[in-house]
Each structure stands twice: as C-alpha cells, then as structure tokens.
Amino acid sequence: MIRALSAGVCALVLAACGGESPPQTVTLHDDNPVNLSDWGLVTAANGALELGEGVTPYDLNTPLFTDYAHKLRTVWMPEGASAQYREGDVLDFPVGTVITKTFYYPRGTAPGRVAKAPETASERAGNGLKLDQVRLIETRLLIRDEGGWRALPYVWNAEQSEATLQRGGAVKRLTLEDEGQPRDFAYIVPDANQCKGCHATNNTTREIRPIGPKPRNLNKTYAYAEGAQNQIAKLVEAGYLVGAPAAETAPALAVWDDESAPVTARARAYLDVNCAHCHNPAGPADTSGLHLNVEAEEDAHLGVCKPPIAAGRGSGGHTYGVTPGAPDESILLFRMRSDAPDIMMPELGRSLVHEEGAALVEAWIAGMDGACRS
Length: 374
What we know:
The chain contains 7 helices and 19 strands. The protein is α+β, with helices and mostly antiparallel strands and 374 residues long.
C-alpha cells in the first residue's frame, strides 16, 4: 500500500493557515478495499461527490452510451509519474495510474426517479458533483499495476454515502423520465470479468486497457472549477502528460451530437467509440470482418454491401450490414435499434436503445450513394 501524503499532516498545515479542509489524500492499494472511500479518489462528503488530491476530471468528445447515464471521469497518477502521448492510441499511462468513471443520473421530478436530460453546470460542485442534484449509481476503477490493468466495480448505496466493491456486478431497477414519460428499465452493473467484454480490445492478448482517453477524444475544452482549459494542455500542465503537441495540432474526434459537423464524421465517431473496441482488426469481433474504428477506410469493412458472417436473428432478415440509401434494410441499424439480448449491438453496457445515436447512423446511411449488387 502506498500513501501519497498523510491526510492528517495536510489538515494541520491548512488549519495553521486558516484554510479549508484539504481534499482527501489518494491511497494506492495493492489489495481491493471494500469501500470506495478508502481510495480517496471520489468521496461523498459535505453534500457533494468530492475529488481527492491530484484527481483530475476529464471528458470525451464523443462518449460511450450507457442507458443515458451521465459520467464523471477522472485520472490520478503517483507523484512524478506521467503518461506518454500516443497519437493514434490510448495514452501510455504509468504504473500506479487510477482511472475512475462514476455513472449517475439527474434526479427526476418524482422520488426515486432519474431523468433523461443533458448535463448541466448545476450538477457540478467544483470538479465534483452536487448530491442533491444527481443519483449516483456506480463507480468503476481501472488500476495500472506492474502486471497490467485491473478493473473493479463499486456500487453506491441508497443513502449516496458510500460505494462498495461488488465483483459480481449488480442490477439496478430504475425509472427514467423521458420527456415526462416514465420508462422502467434494468441498469446493469457489469461484474469484474465482464469488464473484459469491452476493455480487452485485442482478441489475442485479452489484456484489459482503457478505451476512451485517446488524444483525439481528449482534445477538447473542459470547464474545470478553476477555469475552462483544453484537456491536453491541462494534463501537460499538471505533469500528467509528456510528449504531447500543442492542442491545436493534435487530432480531434468529431462530437457526435454537434449538428454543425458533417454527418459522416459524427457517425464514424459514434461507431468508433461505441463499437470499435470489439469491431477492429484485432478485436473480439475480428472474425466478422466488420471494422468500425475511425481509421477503417474500405467500404466493405464498414459493412457497406457486406453480408454478415453469422448473424442469426441478428440479421433481421436483411442482406447487408449497410445498404446505401436504405437504413431500414441495414443490419447495423437493425441491431442498434433492438434491445433483445440476442440481437442488440452493442451487446454489453446497455438495456435501452440509444434513439439519438440510432437516428445519427440512420442519417449517415440514408445519405450514402450507390447500390449493392444483387
């Protein structure tokens, strides 16, 4: 167990200066503590979800869809450690890095309900969250050890005071208010082994690794408590990143719901983030021949006029993955619009259909020229 700095010493120093209580000190554990608060990364206190010392929030240009949940992402590294910039891949994080992702919803209008709504500044308390505005569901940890990454799921209690380790995952029965209409659904917290379903992006090594923090997805402005700043520049300034170019020369993925951007760029960004951790040349779905990573160029690898390898009911009776100009005849969209376990794609991480994401992919396919040979 490694402790960055004694919380008691910090408290004495600030008390002598008449300052406020310091953020909780992060503790890097070799074991797997039952309580999330023991890590000191994100802690429920003073009516807020507070971040520990050196814990830096970040966001993604285009995020993964998870049943309309909002997400607070953070990264922490030991003192003196930095990630190495990698242009087309996830940052090369050092041993000791801990990444957290807290899933939460805005509170609904009725007790016990959650709301489908865009993220607003009113949810934020500094760099954390206001607990009277949100309902915390789970916090997932990715910890970089000497032997690689390990994943731990922590589930928040009803009192919103603590999250506890639940290796076997959990099912949360929720009611989502969608434009005033309640929708009951089962939110699935994955078990520790299911984390590999998304985070083992290489089907040969099967090693767990982060997915989201790539330069192209981090290159955006974030509204930090201390002021808005580009995230790549912020990580460099914090000593958490080396080897990065100026933010204006780094790649940037399209924002999926930014209607001022081209439909193709937004749809490709959406598929890259939501599907390409499996559908890439080395991924778990490599035998499908369907590559949805943003670097894929050939139409056939994107599913255009490509028959499925083995789809079963998942084909929906359609012939091709993507039929140009005919979204309703495309297997890709059929599976995105389904919530049946043996049909839907992605097959993990959601119980609901992402209506807005499906509409984007529909518009992309509808705008394609050409026709498939019969």
